[in-house]
Write a structure and sequence with these properties.
By secondary structure, the protein is mostly helical. The protein has two domains: 161 residues, Peroxidase, domain 1, CATH 1.10.520; 119 residues, Peroxidase, domain 2. Helix content is 45%, strand content 2%. It has 13 helices and two strands. Helix 2 crosses helix 5, helix 3 runs antiparallel to helix 5 and helix 10 packs across helix 12. The chain starts with a helix and ends in a 24-residue tail after the last helix. The relative contact order is 0.17. The protein binds protoporphyrin IX containing FE.
Protein backbone atom coordinates (compact mmCIF):
# COMPACT_ATOMS: atom_id res chain seq x y z
CA UNK A 1 0.00 0.00 0.00
CA UNK A 2 2.80 2.38 1.02
CA UNK A 3 4.59 1.59 -2.25
CA UNK A 4 1.47 2.46 -4.27
CA UNK A 5 1.15 5.82 -2.45
CA UNK A 6 4.77 6.61 -3.25
CA UNK A 7 4.19 5.78 -6.92
CA UNK A 8 1.08 8.00 -7.01
CA UNK A 9 2.91 10.85 -5.29
CA UNK A 10 6.02 10.82 -7.44
CA UNK A 11 4.68 9.76 -10.81
CA UNK A 12 0.99 10.40 -11.19
CA UNK A 13 0.45 13.67 -9.28
CA UNK A 14 3.06 15.70 -11.17
CA UNK A 15 1.54 14.52 -14.46
CA UNK A 16 -1.96 15.43 -13.39
CA UNK A 17 -1.18 18.91 -12.09
CA UNK A 18 1.75 20.22 -14.06
CA UNK A 19 0.75 22.05 -17.20
CA UNK A 20 2.08 24.19 -20.01
CA UNK A 21 2.01 27.98 -19.63
CA UNK A 22 1.73 30.95 -21.96
CA UNK A 23 5.06 32.80 -22.00
CA UNK A 24 6.89 30.05 -20.11
CA UNK A 25 10.26 31.48 -21.24
CA UNK A 26 9.42 35.14 -20.47
CA UNK A 27 12.02 35.32 -17.70
CA UNK A 28 14.36 32.40 -18.49
CA UNK A 29 14.84 33.19 -22.19
CA UNK A 30 13.05 36.38 -23.11
CA UNK A 31 14.01 36.18 -26.76
CA UNK A 32 13.09 32.51 -27.29
CA UNK A 33 9.91 33.09 -29.26
CA UNK A 34 11.37 35.92 -31.35
CA UNK A 35 14.42 33.83 -32.26
CA UNK A 36 12.20 30.99 -33.45
CA UNK A 37 10.13 33.43 -35.48
CA UNK A 38 13.17 35.00 -37.13
CA UNK A 39 14.70 31.69 -38.20
CA UNK A 40 11.36 30.39 -39.50
CA UNK A 41 10.73 33.62 -41.40
CA UNK A 42 14.17 33.39 -43.04
CA UNK A 43 13.52 29.82 -44.19
CA UNK A 44 9.98 30.61 -45.29
CA UNK A 45 11.28 33.44 -47.49
CA UNK A 46 13.12 30.90 -49.62
CA UNK A 47 10.97 27.80 -49.09
CA UNK A 48 7.23 28.17 -48.55
CA UNK A 49 6.83 24.41 -48.23
CA UNK A 50 8.40 24.55 -44.77
CA UNK A 51 4.93 25.08 -43.27
CA UNK A 52 3.77 21.69 -44.53
CA UNK A 53 6.98 20.07 -43.32
CA UNK A 54 6.55 21.46 -39.80
CA UNK A 55 2.85 20.68 -39.52
CA UNK A 56 3.49 17.07 -40.38
CA UNK A 57 6.53 16.86 -38.12
CA UNK A 58 4.60 18.25 -35.16
CA UNK A 59 1.74 15.79 -35.71
CA UNK A 60 4.05 12.78 -36.08
CA UNK A 61 5.99 13.79 -32.98
CA UNK A 62 2.84 14.09 -30.85
CA UNK A 63 1.16 10.88 -31.98
CA UNK A 64 3.21 8.08 -30.54
CA UNK A 65 1.93 4.94 -28.88
CA UNK A 66 1.67 5.46 -25.13
CA UNK A 67 3.48 2.79 -23.15
CA UNK A 68 1.37 1.70 -20.24
CA UNK A 69 3.93 -0.19 -18.18
CA UNK A 70 5.58 2.31 -15.79
CA UNK A 71 3.58 5.18 -17.34
CA UNK A 72 6.01 6.32 -19.99
CA UNK A 73 4.14 9.35 -21.25
CA UNK A 74 5.08 10.04 -24.83
CA UNK A 75 3.69 12.64 -27.10
CA UNK A 76 4.89 16.08 -28.17
CA UNK A 77 8.35 15.51 -26.71
CA UNK A 78 10.65 15.86 -29.74
CA UNK A 79 11.28 12.11 -29.75
CA UNK A 80 10.84 12.20 -33.53
CA UNK A 81 13.97 14.36 -33.85
CA UNK A 82 16.33 11.79 -32.31
CA UNK A 83 18.74 10.18 -34.78
CA UNK A 84 19.19 6.42 -34.81
CA UNK A 85 22.35 4.99 -33.30
CA UNK A 86 23.91 1.56 -33.66
CA UNK A 87 21.99 0.41 -30.59
CA UNK A 88 18.64 2.05 -31.31
CA UNK A 89 16.51 2.59 -34.37
CA UNK A 90 14.58 5.72 -33.63
CA UNK A 91 11.12 6.94 -34.65
CA UNK A 92 12.30 8.90 -37.65
CA UNK A 93 13.62 5.74 -39.30
CA UNK A 94 10.31 4.02 -39.90
CA UNK A 95 8.18 3.89 -43.04
CA UNK A 96 5.53 6.24 -41.61
CA UNK A 97 8.15 8.91 -40.98
CA UNK A 98 10.25 8.38 -44.11
CA UNK A 99 9.24 11.57 -45.85
CA UNK A 100 9.01 13.78 -42.76
CA UNK A 101 11.27 16.75 -43.38
CA UNK A 102 12.36 20.01 -41.79
CA UNK A 103 14.78 18.57 -39.22
CA UNK A 104 17.47 20.94 -40.47
CA UNK A 105 15.28 23.96 -39.72
CA UNK A 106 14.83 22.76 -36.14
CA UNK A 107 18.64 22.39 -35.89
CA UNK A 108 19.03 25.99 -37.07
CA UNK A 109 16.55 27.29 -34.51
CA UNK A 110 18.11 25.23 -31.73
CA UNK A 111 21.58 26.52 -32.55
CA UNK A 112 20.40 30.13 -32.44
CA UNK A 113 18.52 29.56 -29.17
CA UNK A 114 21.38 27.71 -27.49
CA UNK A 115 23.67 30.66 -28.31
CA UNK A 116 21.27 33.02 -26.50
CA UNK A 117 20.07 30.79 -23.63
CA UNK A 118 21.94 27.51 -23.23
CA UNK A 119 20.03 24.44 -22.05
CA UNK A 120 16.80 26.36 -21.46
CA UNK A 121 14.38 25.90 -24.36
CA UNK A 122 13.21 22.40 -25.25
CA UNK A 123 13.25 20.96 -28.76
CA UNK A 124 9.60 20.00 -28.22
CA UNK A 125 8.69 23.67 -27.69
CA UNK A 126 10.79 24.67 -30.69
CA UNK A 127 8.80 22.30 -32.93
CA UNK A 128 5.48 23.65 -31.60
CA UNK A 129 6.53 27.32 -31.86
CA UNK A 130 8.09 26.94 -35.32
CA UNK A 131 4.94 25.24 -36.59
CA UNK A 132 2.76 27.99 -35.13
CA UNK A 133 4.91 30.69 -36.79
CA UNK A 134 4.96 28.95 -40.17
CA UNK A 135 1.16 28.56 -40.13
CA UNK A 136 0.77 32.31 -39.56
CA UNK A 137 3.24 33.09 -42.38
CA UNK A 138 1.17 30.91 -44.73
CA UNK A 139 -1.96 32.96 -44.21
CA UNK A 140 -3.29 30.87 -41.35
CA UNK A 141 -4.28 31.97 -37.85
CA UNK A 142 -1.93 33.87 -35.53
CA UNK A 143 -2.23 32.38 -32.07
CA UNK A 144 -0.42 32.04 -28.76
CA UNK A 145 0.68 28.64 -27.62
CA UNK A 146 1.51 27.54 -24.12
CA UNK A 147 5.07 26.29 -23.65
CA UNK A 148 7.12 24.45 -21.04
CA UNK A 149 7.35 21.09 -22.79
CA UNK A 150 10.38 18.96 -21.93
CA UNK A 151 12.24 16.65 -24.29
CA UNK A 152 11.62 12.93 -24.08
CA UNK A 153 14.15 10.28 -23.15
CA UNK A 154 12.78 7.53 -25.40
CA UNK A 155 12.78 7.39 -29.19
CA UNK A 156 12.08 3.93 -30.47
CA UNK A 157 10.64 2.94 -33.81
CA UNK A 158 8.41 0.35 -32.13
CA UNK A 159 6.40 3.20 -30.57
CA UNK A 160 5.42 4.70 -33.90
CA UNK A 161 1.74 4.05 -34.41
CA UNK A 162 0.50 6.09 -37.35
CA UNK A 163 -2.22 4.82 -39.67
CA UNK A 164 -1.95 4.90 -43.45
CA UNK A 165 -4.06 7.14 -45.71
CA UNK A 166 -6.57 4.39 -46.55
CA UNK A 167 -7.77 3.96 -42.96
CA UNK A 168 -11.61 4.05 -42.73
CA UNK A 169 -13.07 7.13 -41.04
CA UNK A 170 -14.52 5.16 -38.10
CA UNK A 171 -11.09 3.76 -37.23
CA UNK A 172 -9.51 7.16 -37.78
CA UNK A 173 -11.91 8.73 -35.26
CA UNK A 174 -11.01 6.03 -32.75
CA UNK A 175 -7.32 6.66 -33.34
CA UNK A 176 -7.75 10.35 -32.52
CA UNK A 177 -10.18 9.68 -29.66
CA UNK A 178 -7.47 7.60 -27.99
CA UNK A 179 -5.51 10.86 -27.66
CA UNK A 180 -8.53 12.82 -26.42
CA UNK A 181 -9.26 14.45 -29.77
CA UNK A 182 -12.88 14.61 -30.93
CA UNK A 183 -14.09 13.81 -34.45
CA UNK A 184 -14.69 17.50 -35.16
CA UNK A 185 -11.17 18.37 -34.00
CA UNK A 186 -9.85 15.53 -36.16
CA UNK A 187 -11.57 16.98 -39.24
CA UNK A 188 -10.06 20.35 -38.31
CA UNK A 189 -6.55 18.93 -37.92
CA UNK A 190 -6.82 17.06 -41.22
CA UNK A 191 -7.34 20.56 -42.64
CA UNK A 192 -3.53 20.76 -42.37
CA UNK A 193 -3.69 18.97 -45.71
CA UNK A 194 -4.45 22.43 -47.07
CA UNK A 195 -0.68 22.63 -47.64
CA UNK A 196 1.95 20.13 -48.71
CA UNK A 197 2.13 17.13 -50.93
CA UNK A 198 1.52 13.39 -51.09
CA UNK A 199 3.70 11.03 -53.10
CA UNK A 200 2.14 8.73 -55.69
CA UNK A 201 2.53 5.66 -53.48
CA UNK A 202 0.02 7.13 -51.01
CA UNK A 203 -2.82 7.57 -53.50
CA UNK A 204 -1.98 5.28 -56.45
CA UNK A 205 -4.61 2.74 -55.37
CA UNK A 206 -7.31 5.32 -56.18
CA UNK A 207 -6.17 5.88 -59.76
CA UNK A 208 -7.92 4.38 -62.78
CA UNK A 209 -4.55 3.17 -64.09
CA UNK A 210 -4.17 0.91 -61.04
CA UNK A 211 -7.82 0.03 -60.35
CA UNK A 212 -8.60 -0.66 -63.98
CA UNK A 213 -11.69 1.55 -63.66
CA UNK A 214 -12.35 5.09 -62.41
CA UNK A 215 -12.82 5.74 -58.69
CA UNK A 216 -16.34 7.22 -58.46
CA UNK A 217 -15.18 9.36 -55.53
CA UNK A 218 -12.54 11.16 -57.61
CA UNK A 219 -13.13 13.94 -60.12
CA UNK A 220 -12.25 12.37 -63.54
CA UNK A 221 -10.14 15.41 -64.50
CA UNK A 222 -8.08 14.96 -61.34
CA UNK A 223 -7.71 11.24 -62.06
CA UNK A 224 -6.35 12.01 -65.55
CA UNK A 225 -3.87 14.52 -64.10
CA UNK A 226 -2.64 12.18 -61.36
CA UNK A 227 -2.36 9.17 -63.69
CA UNK A 228 -0.12 11.26 -65.94
CA UNK A 229 1.96 12.52 -63.01
CA UNK A 230 2.56 9.07 -61.52
CA UNK A 231 3.22 7.47 -64.91
CA UNK A 232 5.99 9.94 -65.72
CA UNK A 233 7.49 9.61 -62.23
CA UNK A 234 6.30 6.93 -59.82
CA UNK A 235 7.89 8.93 -57.00
CA UNK A 236 6.08 12.12 -58.07
CA UNK A 237 4.05 14.18 -55.63
CA UNK A 238 0.74 16.01 -55.90
CA UNK A 239 -0.42 19.01 -53.89
CA UNK A 240 -2.93 17.90 -51.27
CA UNK A 241 -4.90 21.10 -51.88
CA UNK A 242 -5.10 21.44 -55.61
CA UNK A 243 -6.16 25.08 -55.49
CA UNK A 244 -4.30 27.17 -52.88
CA UNK A 245 -1.44 24.75 -52.25
CA UNK A 246 0.72 26.99 -50.05
CA UNK A 247 -1.99 28.77 -48.07
CA UNK A 248 -3.47 27.66 -44.77
CA UNK A 249 -7.14 28.25 -45.55
CA UNK A 250 -10.43 26.36 -45.94
CA UNK A 251 -9.90 25.59 -49.63
CA UNK A 252 -9.00 21.98 -48.80
CA UNK A 253 -12.60 21.41 -47.66
CA UNK A 254 -14.02 23.01 -50.80
CA UNK A 255 -11.79 20.77 -52.90
CA UNK A 256 -12.88 17.56 -51.20
CA UNK A 257 -16.52 18.56 -51.69
CA UNK A 258 -15.66 18.67 -55.40
CA UNK A 259 -14.13 15.14 -55.20
CA UNK A 260 -10.69 16.64 -55.58
CA UNK A 261 -9.13 15.10 -52.47
CA UNK A 262 -5.83 13.39 -53.26
CA UNK A 263 -5.67 10.72 -50.57
CA UNK A 264 -8.55 8.43 -49.68
CA UNK A 265 -8.59 9.61 -46.06
CA UNK A 266 -9.14 13.22 -47.22
CA UNK A 267 -11.86 12.36 -49.71
CA UNK A 268 -13.68 10.18 -47.20
CA UNK A 269 -13.98 13.09 -44.76
CA UNK A 270 -16.35 14.71 -47.23
CA UNK A 271 -18.33 11.50 -47.78
CA UNK A 272 -18.63 9.84 -44.40
CA UNK A 273 -21.78 10.73 -42.45
CA UNK A 274 -19.84 11.28 -39.23
CA UNK A 275 -17.59 13.97 -40.73
CA UNK A 276 -19.35 15.46 -43.78
CA UNK A 277 -21.25 18.14 -41.80
CA UNK A 278 -18.01 19.47 -40.32
CA UNK A 279 -16.50 19.53 -43.81
CA UNK A 280 -19.44 21.53 -45.23
CA UNK A 281 -19.30 23.97 -42.32
CA UNK A 282 -15.60 24.63 -42.79
CA UNK A 283 -15.97 24.87 -46.57
CA UNK A 284 -18.59 27.57 -46.22
CA UNK A 285 -17.00 29.47 -43.34
CA UNK A 286 -13.29 30.23 -43.65
CA UNK A 287 -13.18 32.19 -40.38
CA UNK A 288 -14.67 29.30 -38.45
CA UNK A 289 -12.01 26.98 -39.88
CA UNK A 290 -9.13 29.31 -39.08
CA UNK A 291 -10.28 29.77 -35.46
CA UNK A 292 -10.97 26.08 -34.98
CA UNK A 293 -7.61 25.18 -36.51
CA UNK A 294 -5.74 27.31 -33.97
CA UNK A 295 -7.68 25.73 -31.10
CA UNK A 296 -7.17 22.20 -32.41
CA UNK A 297 -3.44 22.75 -32.95
CA UNK A 298 -3.07 24.02 -29.39
CA UNK A 299 -4.84 20.90 -28.16
CA UNK A 300 -2.75 18.60 -30.35
CA UNK A 301 0.38 20.27 -28.99
CA UNK A 302 -0.57 19.17 -25.47
CA UNK A 303 -0.80 15.45 -26.21
CA UNK A 304 1.42 13.48 -23.83
CA UNK A 305 3.72 16.39 -22.99
CA UNK A 306 6.44 16.16 -20.38
CA UNK A 307 6.63 19.09 -17.95
CA UNK A 308 8.32 20.21 -14.74
CA UNK A 309 11.40 18.14 -14.16
CA UNK A 310 10.40 15.25 -16.41
CA UNK A 311 12.56 14.46 -19.41
CA UNK A 312 15.33 16.93 -20.20
CA UNK A 313 16.22 20.01 -22.23
CA UNK A 314 18.32 18.60 -25.03
CA UNK A 315 21.34 20.57 -26.18
CA UNK A 316 21.15 19.03 -29.63
CA UNK A 317 17.69 18.04 -30.80
CA UNK A 318 19.04 14.94 -32.56
CA UNK A 319 20.72 13.32 -29.54
CA UNK A 320 19.86 12.69 -25.92
CA UNK A 321 22.05 14.58 -23.45
CA UNK A 322 24.88 12.51 -22.05
CA UNK A 323 24.18 10.90 -18.69
CA UNK A 324 26.91 11.16 -16.02
C1 LIG B 1 -4.09 9.88 -39.18
C2 LIG B 1 -4.32 10.92 -39.95
C3 LIG B 1 -3.38 11.27 -41.05
C4 LIG B 1 -2.88 10.48 -42.05
C5 LIG B 1 -3.18 9.00 -42.31
C6 LIG B 1 -2.00 11.31 -42.84
C7 LIG B 1 -1.29 10.85 -43.91
C8 LIG B 1 -0.46 11.63 -44.69
C9 LIG B 1 0.27 11.16 -45.83
C10 LIG B 1 0.30 9.72 -46.32
C11 LIG B 1 0.93 12.22 -46.35
C12 LIG B 1 1.82 12.23 -47.59
C13 LIG B 1 3.28 12.13 -47.20
C14 LIG B 1 4.21 12.08 -48.40
O1 LIG B 1 3.83 11.68 -49.49
O2 LIG B 1 5.38 12.46 -48.24
C15 LIG B 1 0.63 13.37 -45.53
C16 LIG B 1 1.12 14.62 -45.74
C17 LIG B 1 0.92 15.66 -44.87
N1 LIG B 1 0.26 15.60 -43.66
FE1 LIG B 1 -0.94 14.14 -43.04
N2 LIG B 1 -1.99 12.57 -42.32
C18 LIG B 1 -2.80 12.59 -41.22
C19 LIG B 1 -3.03 13.64 -40.38
C20 LIG B 1 -2.33 14.82 -40.42
C21 LIG B 1 -2.39 15.85 -39.40
C22 LIG B 1 -3.22 15.75 -38.13
C23 LIG B 1 -1.55 16.84 -39.81
C24 LIG B 1 -1.19 18.11 -39.10
C25 LIG B 1 -1.89 18.67 -38.15
C26 LIG B 1 -1.01 16.45 -41.10
C27 LIG B 1 -0.20 17.23 -41.87
C28 LIG B 1 0.30 16.85 -43.10
C29 LIG B 1 1.00 17.76 -43.99
C30 LIG B 1 1.18 19.24 -43.79
C31 LIG B 1 1.42 17.00 -45.09
C32 LIG B 1 2.28 17.46 -46.28
C33 LIG B 1 3.75 17.20 -45.90
C34 LIG B 1 4.77 17.70 -46.89
O3 LIG B 1 4.45 18.37 -47.86
O4 LIG B 1 5.96 17.41 -46.65
N3 LIG B 1 -1.49 15.22 -41.42
N4 LIG B 1 -0.22 12.98 -44.53
Amino acid sequence: MKQISIIIFFFILPLAFADLELGFYASSCRKAESIVKQVVQKRFNRDKSITAALLRMHFHDCFVRVRTIFIHVQGCDASLLIDSTKNNISEKDTGANDSVRGYDLIDDVKEAIEAACPSTVSCADIVALATRDAVALSGGPKYNIPTGRRDGLIANRDDVDLPGPNIPIGALSQFFAAKGITTEEMVTLLGAHTVGVAHCGFFASRLSSVRGKPDPTMDPALDTKLVKLCKSNSDGAAFLDQNTSFTVDNEFYKQILLKRGIMQIDQQLALDKSTSTFVSNFASNGDKFVKSFATAMIKMGKVGVLVGNEGEIRKNCRVFNKRN
